Amino acid sequence: MEPSARSSFFQKKSPGVRRVEALVAVMTWKDRVRIMVSILVIATVIHINNVIRGAIITRKTNMMQVHGMQAPILIARSIAAASTLPPAARLADVMGRRALVWLSLATFIGGTLLETFSMRLTLYVVGNGLSQMGFTVMGLFIELLIANISSTRSRIAYSLVPALPVILATFVSGLLVEVVLADGFPLGWTIGMWCFIFPLCTMPLMLSLMLVARRRNEGSYCSGTTTSCSSSSPSPSLISTSTPASPRLHRFIRFCREIFWVLDIVGVALIATIMFLLFFPPQFAGGLVSRWSEPAIYVPMMVGAALIPFFIFWEYQTRHPLIPLPLMRHRSVWAPLAIAFFANCAHSLQANHIYVFVHYVLGRPNRESTVISSLDATTSAAVGMVVGIVIMHVRRLKVFVISGTLLYFFAHLLVFYSRYWATRDVEPAVIGAQILLGAAAGFFPYPTLTSLQAGVDQDHLAIVTSFFSALYQVGNALGHAVAGIIWTQLVPFKLVDMLGYQHGTQALLDPAAMTPNEESTGSGLAWAARRAYRSVFLYNYISGVVLAAPVVIFGLLISDPKLNHHQSLVETLPHECDEAVKT
What we know:
Layout: H1 15-25, H2 29-63, H3 70-95, H4 99-117, H5 121-149, H6 155-160, H7 165-180, H8 187-192, H9 194-218, H10 226-230, H11 248-262, H12 265-279, H13 295-317, H14 331-351, H15 354-361, H16 366-373, H17 375-394, H18 398-420, H19 427-443, H20 445-454, H21 458-509, H22 524-555, H23 569-572, H24 574-582
């Protein structure tokens, strides 16, 4: 049973919040420079790894002869990340921000080792989900650290620093992908080497924070409150000291029980189970022989749907829901969350098979396919940094969010036009659509997150940031699920219809055999395979355009407070924030 007495966890500042406030109080501009440079190093590794893994997934599924199963892998990554973020944010508040680093490294290394040695799709999906969980937790740690050390006015410029390496990573990764996907290069080593690279790249950031922590402990900031500032032990609200004679084991058991409820493990397990049961079975229901009538497909989906009322009931009655429900009454909270969900759902629909489209449909080599696939992220980083600098002077967010959402909608229209007419003559249009998507992403996602963070106090910063990122991942999972259903339901029949049964099944098992090239493009089997892929991708792009429309609507609904030099507008300008929320 959940404890009847309400924990004081949210009634006063949590130990993690007090600890980070103590760090910021003694932090100098040199410390901030060291921290941001260290973040830049970590972000570079993450971006290069993500681009390489995108190509490796295609290669790995081809080796397992399950091409088209990228969607289950991407769904597993998104669900694992989404279900990890809210409890990770609570853990950061209870145990401190640095606890996220150790959680990130543990899950990433374990998942990468599974990916390296797995030759079955199930193990590979689990490993990929764990490694993505590690990257996601590290991303949350970086977002929280930036939010703690920056003001609302400069936060977007700070937040774009981790995105800058994508400009270099896009082109470097193109060269690396060309090397690692070459015949004879050990694919296992390509994955496994990150077990050493990623932990090493986190060391500069940890050392920078340790230097600040040592100065904090030596200074006078924590005098009189040494226990709460310096100690890494949990809050007294979590481990009761009212009975000094109680055994250490009993205190530890009580601590674990409190952590269980504060992290809402039951709610996390329920939402992860629901998403797995609803999103996964349809990915295996397609093919030349439909499996929708099999109990293994529809029974899990029925169970997942039946669990939704139980999840809602649990969240209403638990004392520590995944997100404090009173916050959801404010437009400044639910509008940015809705933007995160719909924007990433629409994006993942068109991005799910972008590498496949460029490589197999347009017949471009690995290096060029990787670069084109990453152009939107590159443009987003460049445009976003310019927007962040402009916002520092304008001090308003809504005009940029509205402009970005409108541009995002028109970018999806261009994606629909350019990729549906998939011939070499419109390749510049495909590249232009990628660039326009990136430009739109530079205008509204970061200002939207800043608007959300500015509307809450320090105590709720971690949980709303994690919930924003979680809905980002849920949107990705839903988009990948829809794209996967479209692929598995339509591609097999289109290939068999256009190529015949023998060549159609060959294209399903080995798409490289049907890859257009200089000799084959425009004739024979390659031309028929390209038409089959193009006709299926059309449904992805139509779905993306439909889901981009709510992004524009919710962009009109976010609040527009004036930014200042403080970490949160709630603590410094409460009346202005309240008016911004109501209007």
